[in-house]
Write a structure and sequence with these properties.
The complex is a heterodimer of chains A (350) and B (512).
Chain A lengths: L8 H22 L7 H6 L1 H26 L7 H18 L5 H29 L4 H19 L13 E2 L9 H5 L1 E2 L1 H19 L1 H11 L1 H6 L4 H28 L10 H11 L4 H24 L6 H19 L21
Antiparallel strand pairs in A: 1-2
Chain B lengths: L8 E10 L2 E11 L4 E6 L5 H8 L7 E6 L2 E3 L4 H6 L2 E4 L11 H6 L13 H15 L14 H14 L4 E5 L7 H16 L3 E6 L2 H7 L2 E6 L2 E6 L6 H9 L17 E11 L5 E11 L3 E5 L6 H8 L7 E6 L2 E2 L5 H6 L3 E4 L3 H5 L6 H4 L11 E2 L2 E2 L1 H14 L16 H13 L5 E5 L7 H16 L3 E5 L3 H7 L2 E6 L2 E7 L5 H8 L9
Helix pairs in contact in B: 14-15
Classes of the chains: A mainly alpha (350), B alpha/beta (512).
């Protein structure tokens, strides 16, 4: 009854873009179009595969942002949380290189989650207990993670192996769609499931109702006996965890190694996806897909070498699209009303 | 099962200290079962603080609370709710973007076996409650789309949904139209008939006398008296509240109208929703007279004031101030060239900057003129000195000129706005709802200031939805109905009845 109205216009636009992309992809790949055609470059299976890989960390980052911001804590530190997760996952993987591959990788994931959670908790502590400006706290996390991981990183360390794709029986045999969606490594599946889980949790569970109330009107939540700051601590920590997983994805699933500053602005693009998606999980996923696709296209164009545009301009694509999307839509979205405001019980006059 | 003589709620020796303030000082109060107890007091008398203590939002510095004779430990609202106490806050505690059902179940959610929220069940219970108490509301409506009166119903249902037996209504009529107030009183009677005990907080004397069984008066954090509507009169209650005799009727000499200062000719404008809000309004206001604009809210009064003060564009017609065409001029031109001042109806949105100190608020429209400006810089000492003078003259109760304006009580905020607007040399005063939501003492003060301005020869345009205010201040009364001035009546010919009929759109001489 109430859930269809939850999708506001912008999140529908974002989601629509993702769906159109999939449909065009299916059509293009099923038609007998020559391999060197521009259509193949723009919508080929490999481009779409790359799109999904680029989308996952953005989607996870956006989910992290939604978790925090829906309870009223601004989180611009996702970039730092991701990087911390990536580094922790890498170190844990390297330390357990002698273990069998799967346990070692899972250990890496656990470390990434833990590092992200710790970053989230620090952010909550600064924002709630010490009433620090949340933008400053987030910036601090970015600088901390960037500096610390660069300082600690030993380029001689090598992680051996990464997650490999798991084909889902039957579904992976569907033409095109099977190739894109049902033949992926585990964190990719987890991320996609997480989006749906978060949507249901936010809008159809007690936890979600209370979390959103804390972010929209904390006083109202307080007057019905809800511990606002408890929800803020919990969700900011959970958000950190999800951002950590995004970092873990980069190291343990996508690249296989750690590189200095390897998040390369993904945390910020995640924020853009969150805003473009109007703080809705599916909206943010749609926006992440759009941004991911620009990276996929960028990659495909560079590989195909069919264009006469200098490669630097092609490399700009993801960032330009991000700017346009956010600049064009930011006026139409509606952030949680109490975002960024410290909540104090006693003595607040209103 | 329990002794009926035991009060539903009793507070004993409650003291609450905030840094620098004693908000409640040894307060004793008992609420009997099935009673409507009015708690009367000026803004800042400590009513809301006391209620927040009873509701578990604040911890008392000293004192005890008993519910049904049992000593209660309130650590947070949860405890109060568990003891059957429900509160409708002055500022509604509803999440605007959520539905009615979501708001009502928040904190007391119904959950299905699979762990998901059971909105249907809650909606059903809401429908049942709304039938039982005649509180009509759609459970699936979004709160932000609802009128204020309906939002209040949602708040009441929220308390009833939690099976509240004791209801605290904190200034419930402050935001309501006269019709909605009547509706609320019916609801309160019905709740009382069903055995609920109600604490009704207000500073409106008439309402208190009308609805309550017993009246307790609070002043400066202390209980200063207890009475019943049968024994009390408005004058007595006002004196108890303020601590001195209050003259409720305004004393004024006959008007001496002079030259025309404000002339409005065939003014047309649209509302925020793009609908026609002013459909050709014309009138004149002369020096030394008060033209009162009466009307049920939403008949174009807000737009009229906004167009005259240039906060809204006129689509047609003219605004002449001192003979100069000021239609759609800049607000600054209107205040400075037009020598006019404006007490806006929504002081928070248009009258003040809550986060600025009082001193800065007092120069909001003169900061760019000497002596407050020295070239491009601000002359702080002059601003502070100016503030100290006005605070003294207009009796603004603030700890210091540097106190954040938002932390003052409503009455003092309004006195601050009035101080700023009345202290300049002006020829035209536009006062919209100048006493909305403020206490009797401040109302008396502001009314006298308005009359004093008139006697100085200022032309006053007074817009108010309080008919009493219009009747006691105006020299002529214009009634607005559906974006038009339906009639202008000299005060001597105006009665509550004929103005009331005009407000309902019935012209003089017309049959109903």
């Amino acid at each position: 009854m109430s859930s269809p109205t939850r999708f506001k216009k912008t999140s529908l636009i974002a989601l629509g873009i993702a769906i159109v992309l999939i449909i065009v992809g299916v059509i293009v790949n099923l038609l007998p179009i020559p391999d060197d055609s521009m259509w193949r470059v723009l919508f080929g299976v490999s481009t779409l595969n790359f799109t999904l890989r680029a989308t996952i960390p953005l989607a996870l980052g956006a989910m992290a942002g939604i978790l925090c911001e829906r309870t009223g804590i601004i989180n611009i530190g996702i970039e730092g949380m991701m990087l911390a997760g990536a580094y922790a996952g890498f170190v844990a993987k390297v330390a357990t290189n002698s273990w069998p591959l799967m346990p070692s990788l899972l250990f890496g994931v656990a470390a990434a989650l833990l590092a992200g959670a710790a970053m989230g908790y620090i952010h909550a502590l600064f924002s709630i207990k010490f009433k620090m400006d949340q933008i400053i706290s987030g910036t601090f996390l970015i600088l901390l993670a960037g500096g610390l991981t660069a300082y600690l990183f030993n380029p001689d360390m090598v992680a051996e192996g990464k997650f490999s794709p798991i084909a889902i029986p039957v579904l992976s045999k569907i033409p095109v769609i099977g190739d894109i969606f049902f033949n992926n490594p585990p964190i990719t599946y987890t991320a996609l499931i997480l989006v749906a889980v978060l949507h249901v949790a936010l809008f159809h569970t007690k936890w979600g109702l209370r979390s959103r109330a804390a972010g929209e009107h904390p006083r109202a939540a307080d007057t019905v006996g809800i511990n606002v700051n408890f929800y803020r601590y919990m969700n900011t920590t959970l958000g950190g965890m999800v951002a950590g997983l995004a970092g873990g994805f980069l190291v343990l699933e996508a690249v296989g190694q750690f590189q200095e500053g390897m998040t390369a602005g993904r945390g910020f693009i995640s924020l853009a996806a969150m805003i473009f998606g109007n703080w809705m999980p599916f909206g943010a996923l749609g926006a992440a897909t759009l941004f991911g696709y620009t990276q996929g296209v960028q990659n495909a164009l560079l590989l195909a070498g069919v264009v006469n545009i200098p490669r630097h301009f092609i490399s700009m694509l993801p960032y330009v699209v991000t700017i346009i999307a956010v600049a064009g839509f930011v006026g139409r979205v509606r952030p949680p009303a109490a975002e960024g405001k410290v909540y104090e019980t006693e003595g607040s006059s209103e | 099962m329990s002794n009926t003589n035991v009060p539903a709620l009793e507070v004993k020796h409650i003291t609450k200290k905030f840094p620098g303030v004693i908000a409640n000082d040894d307060v004793n109060l008992a609420l009997n079962k099935g009673e409507i107890l009015a708690l009367l007091g000026e803004n800042g008398a400590g009513k809301s603080t006391l209620m927040n203590i009873i509701y578990g939002l604040y911890k008392p510095t000293e004192g005890e609370i008993y519910v049904n004779g049992q000593k209660a430990e309130m650590h947070n609202p949860k405890d109060a709710i568990a003891l059957g106490i429900g509160m409708v806050h002055q500022h509604f505690q509803l999440v605007p973007v959520m539905t009615v059902a979501e708001n009502i179940m928040l904190g007391a959610e119904s959950v299905k076996k699979n762990g998901l929220l059971d909105i249907k069940k809650v909606a059903q219970e809401i429908t049942e409650l709304s039938h039982r108490y005649h509180l009509d509301v759609n459970p699936y409506a979004k709160v932000e789309d609802l009128p204020v009166g309906v939002q209040q119903r949602v708040e009441i249902i929220k308390a009833l949904y939690r099976e509240a037996e004791i209801l605290i209504l904190d200034e419930p009529t402050a935001v309501l139209t006269p019709q909605e107030i009547e509706g609320l009183f019916e609801i309160m009677k019905r709740l009382q008939a069903q055995g609920k005990s109600i604490i009704f907080i207000s500073h409106k004397l008439k309402e208190v006398l009308y609805i309550s069984d017993r009246i307790v008066v609070l002043r400066n954090g202390k209980v200063v008296g207890e009475t019943t509507p049968a024994e009390a009169t408005q004058e007595k209650l006002a004196a108890m509240m303020v601590g001195r005799e209050v003259i409720l009727t305004v004393e004024k000499k006959p008007a001496q109208p002079g030259e025309v200062v404000l002339e409005v000719k065939d003014l047309k404008a649209r509302s925020d929703l793009g609908e026609s809000a002013l459909r050709g309004v014309s009138f004149k206001v002369r020096e030394g007279e008060i033209l009162g604009v009466a009307g049920v809210q939403g008949n174009g009064q807000t737009e009229l004031v906004e167009v005259i003060t240039s906060l809204r564009k006129a689509d047609g017609g003219q605004v002449l101030i001192n003979g100069q065409d000021m239609t759609n001029a800049s607000p600054r031109a209107i205040t400075q060239k037009g020598q006019s001042s404006h007490v806006p109806e929504d002081r928070h949105a248009y009258g003040m900057v809550s986060t600025y100190p009082v001193a800065d608020n007092l120069v909001l429209n003169t900061y760019n003129l000497p002596p407050f400006a020295k070239g491009v810089t601000i002359n702080r000492p002059a601003i502070i000195q100016h503030a100290e003078e006005l605070i003294e003259k207009f009796d603004v109760r603030t700890p210091s000129p540097l106190t954040r304006a938002g932390s003052l009580s409503g009455g003092n905020q309004q006195k601050m706005v009035v101080a700023r607007e009345f202290s300049r040399p002006i020829k035209l005063l536009i006062a919209a709802q100048p006493t909305r939501g403020i206490d009797v003492g401040s109302i008396e003060f502001i009314h006298n200031q308005i009359v004093a301005k008139r006697d100085e020869g200022v032309a006053v345009l007074l817009v108010s939805s309080e008919l009493d205010e219009i009747m006691s201040l105006s020299d002529r009364i214009a009634v607005m109905y559906k974006g038009e001035i339906i009639d202008i009546v000299p005060r001597a010919e105006a009665t509550r009845e004929n103005i009331g009929l005009l407000m309902a759109g019935v012209k003089r001489g017309e049959k109903i």
